[in-house]
User: Fold this.
Amino acid sequence: MRGDPVSRMEVRFRGALGRFALDVAFEVPARGITALFGPSGCGKTSVLRCVAGLQRLEGRFALDGDVWQDGRHFRPTHKRPIGYVFQEANLFPHLSVRANLLYGHRRTVGRGVPETIREADVVALLGIGHLLDRAPLNLSGGERQRVAVGRALLSQPRLLLMDEPLAALDRMSKDDILPYLERLHEVLSVPVLYVSHDIAEVERLADHLVLLRAGRVVANGPLAELQSDPSLPIARLPEAGVTLPAVVEGFEAAYGLTTLALDGGTLQVPGELGPPGSRRGIRIAASDVSLARRPPEGSTILNALPARILKAEPPDGVQMTAVVALGPAGTGARLLARVTRKSWDLLGLAPGEPVFAQIKGVALVQPGTGTDDPPD
Amino acid sequence: MIWQPILLTLQLATLTTLILLVIGTPLAWWLARSPARWKEAVATVVALPLVLPPTVIGFYLLILLGPDGPGGWVASLWGARTLAFTFPGLVIGSVLYSMPFVVQPIRNAFEAAGDRPLEAAATLRASPLDRFFTVAVPLARRGFLTGAVLGFAHTMGEFGVILMIGGNIPGKTRVLSVAIYDYVETLQWTQAHILAGGMLVFSFTVILTMMMLEKRIGRGGR
Assistant:
């Protein structure tokens, strides 16, 4: 993937920003979803606003060689081919849902921009057909946000910017809208910059991750790579974990267990997760993985895979987060394991040592194709 | 005879309101959105007629419009001596003293709508002018309604300033309020009753209509 001549997005901004200075520079692939992740107030929204041209800081932005800002050159917001989804939907209260949806569409397709994203498709994709004649005031939070996403998409963007689109929603509305965003990801080819401070959301949606802290880039890379780097702050979160691609190998009907193959081993997971060969995303939390010197005997834990320790941090904490790579040679997928420093020392563990990773729980992160699609 | 001041007053109020909407809207927009600090000084100048006695405004207007002021120079362009005691002079005076009643509600409405809808419009390819007319103005429509009605009504009722700069020339500057004063002075009670009663009914109708319209607009938006 990384060697492909993929088009890229070049982002560089610096300037004063309230209490701290923003100084970011990164390049990310201009495809899939790139999450800008960090604690509140770390400057991620400002980066997004700078990309949109809503805020002007010194710097440079180019999408696939098309320069939007560089030195004194600054393309105003309304001339940038973007879609922007705000934290609060920010619909026009004086227009109907349909007029909201078509506001940007009229100004692009109406002026000769090729229509690659069609109204009927967006309405179906987001399940907002029954809302078209309503006023934004009469929609629920989740509905409003779906309309806002549709409005942004129909302006035929070459880049979709989403500023914590779920942050203002309650748990239920979030669960209601996430499947739509996932489906969007599967169906559309528009690259997305997605700002969030919720790691669960990022793991569910993002392909690529830019970690920000106090106005600076801490790390930038594919999601799986950053998740399994114990030196990064996300690996220290209580809910740290990794998301991995898996393929269904078979179903053991007598016990109701599905066998999933991942890079470097297989797992047995409760439930029938699809026909053999179908792809599933799974998430394994660091706190669900423990390490053993020998293959466990007399244990109720079903999944114990040979692996090798790559590293562990921090060396002086009560808890350590170890990265292990699956397979006897340690060449497979990477997992995080949360262990106490005491057991680490008792077992005499160290980088390079062979171990068995005992996996207590596996969660699915993405609905598989065709099995449990979001409702219309 | 009795219709002449009524017609003249309606002409004056309509023209004044239209002019105020045209020049007051960009002024209100600037006051609502400019980061300039000295804009409050401008806002204060606009608001002065709210507190100054009408005779004071009238006095300065008389000097401005008179033969030795800029008004006199303008009048000389078509060979007249002064703008004072003329209908154009009344319009200029009315525009100035009714300005706060139009600019203030529109400015408030622009401020209440805030940046965010305009930012959304910008990300949807609307140029500054486009988003002004398709987003800012529709969102501020209550302010426009209030401003227009208040400006119109206030121009209809002004007395002191008119008397100072317009006098009492029938068919030219003799507006309703002055005519009523005149009728009372000359003990023509019937005519005074007709005009005063008419103003009462008119004012009641205007305010009632405005309140009902506001309610209806309010339901549609925001």
Q: What stands out?
A: The interface with chain A takes residues 116-117, 119-128, 130-131, 134-135, 138-139, 141, 220-222 of chain B (CB under 8 Å). Residues 3-35+44-220 of chain B form a domain with the MetI-like fold fold (CATH 1.10.3720.10). The radius of gyration of chain B is 20 Å.
